[in-house]
Amino acid sequence: MSATHIVKMWDEDEFPELAANEYFCLTAVNGLGLTVPHFELSDDGGAIVIERFDRIDEGYLGFDDFCVLNGLGTADKYKGGYETRLFKRIREFLEPADAPQALETVFKLFALNCAIRNGDAHLKNFGLTYPGIDAPLCLAPVYDLVATWAYIPKDPMALTLGGSTKWPNRKQLVQLAQTRCQLTPKNAEQHLEAAADALSTTSPELKQYFKG
Fold it and tell me: How far does Cα 94 stand from its chain's mean position?
């Protein structure tokens, strides 16, 4: 029987409180209403335990990350732009009826990544799952989310947007929502506000943890 959970821990001298960093980022994702595997922070804060999302009663879900879906190797996970490597591929691989909801979900996640300054949102940190070879694909739950600015000040985006790895402003995010996700400006603004609210809701627990 293979493991049902993943335990992640890091060298505290190199990445202090990285388990807590991921824990609170995933907590914010939960608050945004996105699908996240069950996760817990260890009592000493040194590890985060995450339930595997590819395990099902019958065995395993198929899973492909966006390196695979772009025909790239792991070494190329930071190459390309979000517009084509992520949003366009979703439209190509998902059923037409499923793509709009998936694009909206990924936009919400992308907005949160920008808010927390996750400079490690590369192609292997997004994926699609499927229960069988001929079954339709769907978005994988959110995983591997951290605020990299805590360790690498001014860390840029992992991929480009509009040809640049600079973090987008609100106007650019709304434009992305319109051109790549078929969202209205009003919908985009609502999702940006929801991301801010999710972070605000997570803030008291985060402050209490670090105060202790």
Answer: 18
